[in-house]
């Protein structure tokens, strides 16, 4: 067991020294300094430092944060449509509202990602304002999903709450990264 651990550690060390780009340390610093004042700093750091794409600029980070949020929103959407069934009529109604809301969030986050991928100097301010509007709307949807479960306690509600809270946290961080990107332009 110890030998295996040693081997794995050695392999990890070797592979990380082989893979690391010259600017890997500064990437890490950018993630760290960008996440410090995010709404959920450690979640921000965890999700963005394990992100496999580029993370060299505030724009990269905003895109990465939106991608994380989009991918989690999609997962929650699938989870809600395939894995959860309401037992009472109230639960079923609340659940189907949540499915609709999370699917709106997915749509809004996709639009945001498209916008961030096509940023242009002349339209930067307008595009940032779009991105901010859409991500805020996605966040609102995630928050209001749970309102439908008011007064209905039980496993369905607690499952939905756990998933929605998590996706709302990464979405909130994405909004913060968009604001940072906007400010980095000044
Ligand atoms: C972006 O920054 C500009 C200049 O500071 C500010 O006026 C504008 O409201 C910001 N836009 C967004 C969407 O935050």
UniProtKB/TrEMBL annotation:
InterPro entries associated with the record: Invertase/methylesterase_inhib (IPR035513), Pectinesterase_inhib_dom (IPR006501), PME_Inhibitor (IPR051955)
Annotated CDD domains: PMEI-like_3
Similarity remark: Belongs to the PMEI family.
Signal sequence, renumbered to the chain: 1-20
Compartment(s) where it occurs, according to its Swiss-Prot or TrEMBL record: Secreted, Extracellular space, Apoplast
SUPFAM superfamilies given in the database record: Plant invertase/pectin methylesterase inhibitor
An example Gene Ontology molecular-function term: enzyme inhibitor activity
One cellular component term from this protein's GO annotations in UniProt: apoplast
Ranges for domain Pectinesterase inhibitor: 26-177
Domain of life: Eukaryota
Major subcellular location class: secreted
NCBIfam families xref list: PME_inhib
The name this protein goes by in its record: Pectinesterase inhibitor domain-containing protein
Keyword Signal: yes
Lineage start: Eukaryota, Viridiplantae, Streptophyta, Embryophyta, Tracheophyta
Keywords noted in UniProt: Apoplast, Disulfide bond, Secreted, Signal
